[in-house]
Amino acid sequence: MSSNSESTNNNFLDKLETAKKRATVFQEFLKQEISLGANSEKLAVLDAGIQNSPYQQYIPSYSQFLSSKPDGVKIFSSVNNDKFKPYPQIGQIPEIDGEALKFIYDDIKEACVCIGGFANGDFKSYWMGKNALRKNQFWSSTKIIAILNLISRINTNYPNIDIDRCVIRGEKDGKIIECPFYNFAEDVVSYAKNIASSNSIAAMFKRFETRAGLELWVKQITGNNDLEFQGDYGEAPFLELPELVNINTQEVLLKAPENTPKRQNLITAYDLTRLLSMAGWHHYINSSCQLPGVQSHSLESVIKAMGVDTARYADVAIANLGLENAIASPVIISKLGFGPSETRNTVELVYLALVQFIDNRYKMENKPGQLRSVCMTLRGEKPVRDLNSYDYEAITLDASMAAEVTELLRRIVTDEIL
Prior knowledge:
Blueprint: H1 3-18, H2 22-35, H3 62-65, E1 75-76, E2 85-86, E3 96-97, E4 108-119, E5 122-130, H4 143-157, E6 166-172, E7 175-180, H5 181-190, H6 198-206, H7 211-222, E8 228-229, E9 243-246, E10 252-255, E11 265-266, H8 269-280, H9 296-306, H10 313-320, E12 327-341, E13 346-359, E14 369-383, H11 391-413
Parallel strand pairs: 1-14, 3-5
Antiparallel strand pairs: 2-5, 4-5, 4-14, 6-7, 6-9, 8-11, 9-10, 12-13, 13-14
Helix pairs in contact: 2-11, 4-6, 5-6, 5-9, 10-11
């Protein structure tokens, strides 16, 4: 082993050992928040931004990485224990281990984590939860649902249509607005407002299906009937009557149905983890487990858009574990959620993410790299005395989420969670 390899090996071994001191990890994140002058409008990790992420360069390759399977020679996957079961069929709620996440601190009120991997060529999954089936408000993390539903409906009727060859068109203020699907999806995740606000575009995506129809679709996919998904995101849709149009033929593929009164968005951590895992692991799971109708060429657009999330909890977790130079083929797709609740007098934060990479620490012992793939939803909250001033509670919650994601990934790469 070269001196450089030994140095790298010692670095992550030291950091993995240090990361066991969870209170210290949290305090370090909190110090960073304070030193950066973070507040409820600009949090250190939630609002870090993709432009500062070392993984931005890999986004164009995410879909390729998510389609590559272990060959058993250069890359292996070891999930040969009784905890891993075949990925569930559509409409089937998997067995969720309610004990495995007891280590998660009290700030995280609901969580659902699923580890995926291969055993004898078959993809298997291990589901863990903390109040995983308790419905609640998951804020903007739910914005991906209507986008996935749109792709499902389009590819069911037009399997050869690549969503990247479609535009969304509609009238606004007496003018016809037309932009590519991807540009809208990216604006939802990035909050860049290149076209409009994330909230107004997310509400527009929900206009492609009836509220009851979209809610029913989620229930049929996840198997969870105890949810409500008929709300918006605090703003009117950017386009009230959007159309999805094939840019090559100008054929209108889908129109907005008649609108109906809004209700609430109350779903579960399990629902979100299930839907994102179906998108991210599309190439790994059986066709009977995949999102109905969805084709990989259209999923690429969503995966690329979810790569630009401003929340970078996985980034800081990997860095704190000293793994930056020990992993290959990284994928981090995610969607944040954040807001103050007047009804609960809390500030709340959600992190929905799929994180995958090849763990190459074993190569230093002339062993193949190991596939690590996990999908997670964590919802945290802090009580707030004054909803007009909750900066400290917000930065504390941001630091807490970063610390919990770090601990979760630490237990995964050390196999402690298994």
